Structure formats: structure tokens, C-alpha cells
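Please, structure for the following, as C-alpha cells.
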Amino acid sequence: MKRIIEVSTPGTHVALRHGALTIGRNSQIVGQVPIEDLGVLILASNALSCSSALLSALAASGATVVVTGADHQPEGVLLPLRAHSTRGERIRAQTGASVPLQKRIWANLIRAKIRGQAALLRSGAGRRRLARLEASVRSGDADNAEAQAARTYWPLVFLDVDQMPVAEPFRRRRDGEWPNNLLNYGYAVLRAIVARAICGAGLLPEIGVHHHNRYDAFALASDLMEPFRPWVDHRCRELIPEGPGDLDRTSKEALLGIYDDPVLLGGEKTPLFAAVEHTATSLAAVFLASRDGERIEKATGRLLLPAFAALDES
């Protein structure tokens, strides 16, 4: 299982030494991790330094490096570009994907996202509405069931939590008050991990099946992360009873811990970090199968999408 490590202490230097990432402070090595064990390195301070040799070694091993800004939110990402031996073939299949295929993939992603959202709601009425919306998703989500589901989901998802510190229905806004800061961090790291998996599967993260914003360098990651968002929401629910607060070391560690959580994928349990990789690999298989003439319905059936293995609450 790959590890996710955040380095945030000012004055720290991270470097490569004998095939391992070393963490140094005051001329002393205080930590060491083999490069092959690393999946993501988060550099969370503008008062630390990092060697170029380490960055090169991480990219060569397939790891991702995330750099945060002054607001502690991820600001930039370094992705591996030579992680798959048949990358050229897969990119050609990806860029040649038909519009109907892309729309069918997007519909499947949205169904899985809404299914995950429904699993987090205790409200019978809310769950039933999301179930109806999931069943109604058409190719390309033509009726925008995703947005309809959000209008039901967000006012309920945190009000269902025992000991919720606030009584008002929650409003999801990137610049909103707590716990939006928790969600922002969780989603940003998730997006980086999905982008890493996409590169590992030999695909281009810039070419989405739905998202096409000219300023979005990771459009496919924005697509493929959708069904995994509820795991971030679930961990934020667990942090809610502690009350409003800043994005501190404890909350970051809790959010990064979701990548060990069990996910049902293809009927089997797997850690979320590995599930993201399997989903990206299965998407590449969809593109290749369609390129080889397989019917859209059969090709998109290869896409492995996550479901909650179990939740503490009923």
C-alpha cells in the first residue's frame, strides 16, 4: 500500500538518499521512507526545501508531489509522465473516444456519485429522492441529476450528524465557512491522487469526458474523482462533532487516512487508494475496447466504480 506523507514543519529539508526520501532538520535526519513506498508527498510549508534529485526520483517511481499555498490548500502538482509502457496507444484511444462513449462514461460516474451520497444520508426521504435521481440519469446526465442531487444532499448530509455544532442547513461553497475548508482540502488531495492514477494508467489527465474548462489542467481527474467524493464527505462528518476549527495537523491526518478505508469495487473490498488506481485502469480499458470496435454498452461495462463497503451508522 502506497503511503501519503505531508511535510509541514518550517526549516525542514527533504532529499534523496540511498533510494529513500529523507527528512532533515537542524542537520539531523528525523525521518526516512523508501521511494517505492511513496504514493503522494505533500509539501505544506513555504519555509522548507526539496532537492531536484528527490523530485526526479519520485516522478520516475510514479509518485505525485503536491505543493500547498499560504491558505494550506494544494496549489500545484507534479505528476509522473512515463508511468505506463503503452501510454501512446492509450492516449490515442482516449483522444479518439466518441462523444456518445464519453457521455455514457459520465452518466456512469454520476450514478456512482449519487449512490455514494445516498449511502451517507439517514433521512429516508432524502435517500429515496437520491435513489430516484440515480435511476433517472441519462447519457451525459442530460437532465443534470448531479445538481438536483446536490440540492437534496448538502442541506442534509451534516445535519444528520449527532452533536452537529450548527443548526442551519449546510451550504457547500469553496469560499464558505467551516467545514468547507475540510472539504476543500480533502477534495484537492483526492484530485491529485486521481490525476496520479490517470497518468499511471497511461492516460492524459488534461482530456476529460465531461469537464472541458480551458483552465482545468486535470479535466479527466475532475471527472473521475466524482464517485470518490463521498468518502471525503464521510470523513468530514466524523470530524464535525469536534466543532468549527482551522485546517490543522489532526484534521489533515484524518482526511489523508481515508485512503486506507475499504471500498467495494467489482464486488471486492480494496483500500480507497488502490480503488482509485483500479478505476483509472478500467477507464483505459473502456477507451481501448471502444477503439477496437466493442459496442458502447459493453465497453462502458468495464468501468469499475466504487461503493461503500460499510458505514458505522445505519
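The chain has a mean pLDDT of 90. The longest helix spans residues 99-120.
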